[in-house]
Design brief:
alpha/beta, Dihydrofolate Reductase, subunit A, 10 strands, 10-stranded mixed β-sheet
């Protein structure tokens, strides 16, 4: 994989590239893959858009995170399971000063999930929900359930709960509604987008979804890699809680 930014002098080490300006500061990093014409899924999931390079970036971002944050809809569509790093990846995490474990935190306002699915049957999974969640569903889920919000998810409270547990480096893997809500509240610090060299054609689906924003959010390109026509971008969100 070739580095275009910050340097153009050869192959890039993915972990070094994505650890720069991240490990010490921490924050919330969103990760997406899309086609050149903006599609974020093919046949209902992101698999049709993934490239070998994207899969390596996906793994590297997880290796450099304290926790994975994902919406329940995306977790179901992408068939999420508990994150169990290999022995080699556990050693790599330790080399970066991270815990060997990588918990998954799921956001579900209603808690209408399959309680028997491996993700929700794992006591290491954290599920954030609201007061309106079905009480019987809460009882059925083995994973830890934390209420953050009345009718809607209180995303600042979600990030605060994670931070209080030492989970400062959050990789948010979508979906679009979760990402849009957090970005509009100034909770996204960095956006990593893999652009596959593909025209997907007309259809629904963008990186963000939900209620229209009153204004946009500025981004600053801080990293760019290329492999076989696919681009791997790093952007800092310029107006994210004034932390830049």
């Amino acid at each position: 994989m070739r580095s275009l930014i910050p340097s153009a002098d050869g192959e890039a080490d993915l972990h070094t590239h994505y650890a720069r300006d991240w490990l010490d500061a921490g924050g919330v990093r969103a990760n997406f893959v899309c086609s050149v014409d903006g599609a974020i899924s093919a046949s209902g999931s992101s698999r049709g858009l993934q490239t070998p390079g994207d899969n390596l970036v996906f793994a590297a971002l997880r290796d450099l995170a304290d926790v994975v944050l994902v919406g329940a809809g995306t977790a179901t569509a992408e068939r999420y399971r508990p994150a169990v790093p290999s022995a080699e990846r556990m050693r790599r995490r330790e080399d970066f000063g991270l815990d060997r474990r990588l918990p998954v935190a799921v956001v579900s306002g209603t808690l209408r999930v399959d309680a028997d699915a491996a993700l929700y049957a794992d006591p290491g999974t954290i599920v954030f929900t609201t007061q309106r969640a079905d009480r019987s569903a809460v009882a059925d889920v083995t994973a830890e359930v934390i209420v953050c919000g009345q009718a809607e998810i209180d995303f600042p409270a979600v990030i605060a709960v994670l931070a209080a547990r030492g989970l400062r480096r959050v990789v948010c893997e979508g979906g679009p509604t979760l990402f849009a809500s957090m970005a509009d509240e100034g909770l996204i610090d960095e956006l990593c987008v893999s652009v596959s060299p593909l025209l997907s054609g007309p259809g629904p689906g963008r990186l963000s979804a939900g209620v229209e924003w009153p204004h946009g959010h500025g981004l600053r390109l801080t990293g760019l890699l290329e492999e076989d026509g696919a681009l791997f971008t790093r952007y800092r969100v310029e107006d994210s809680l004034g932390r830049l």
